[in-house]
Amino acid sequence: QSTWGITTQFALAPFLSSVAMPGMPLSDSHRILLQNFMTRPVMTDEEVTSLIRELNAKFGTHNFGGPDDYATQINQNVSFMQLEVRKAFSDDDGKLYWGIVNKGTDEIGKLGTTLSDLEIEFFKKLFDMILTSEEKMVDRLSVDNLKNKLSHAMTLAEVDTLVCKLVDELWLSVPRKKFLSFGVRSQLELRSHFEKMDLPECVLCQEVVLKTVNCSNERCSTVMHKRCSDTYTSRQNVAARCPTCTSQWNAPR
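The chain above was modelled as a monomer; its predicted structure follows.
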């Protein structure tokens, strides 16, 4: 048996085969990948690629392509259930991650399956605090002080336990010591919420930017993700210029 358990029975198979779905039918390879997405909230691109390579070898499905091709095929078959396989780059480590999200549920309300009403209230206040901070991260002292701004006060021990849980489940991240920010799971599952918040878009990939790299020209509003900025500057034979105002891109303001 492989590391990924691809020789085991997949629980979704009876359900998926009994329902009329749009698109081409899912193969065994697609079903097993989907099962992994359903049981693991977040996987790295390396993990997904490794699993697909193993599935292709087992079932002889090398012509099915890579992660993007698998995701497209799966999404065509599960969209009627308001499910979608998505990918997102982490703002912390720059790596690509994959996950499956439920588009039919209030995004932050998704936490209701594992958190109490008071804990969800805490997360919403923390979410807004991070979102309105300049660097999209907040220090632990400010987080701890949220305990007295709820409908019912929480103890420091309860706050610490909750924060550790949210970090472990990748809703939050620790970009540097004693600071909290959005985790990659938030970037995957709360994407439409971010898109409603009038946040800037990366000039290169046109996706919402939480932690921006700014143009050196203070009058220019052009921003990029750090990963996009790194790729952009590495491809320039000379000093990179802002694609909007042509100021030197990586110069300090």
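The two ends are 56 Å apart (CA to CA).
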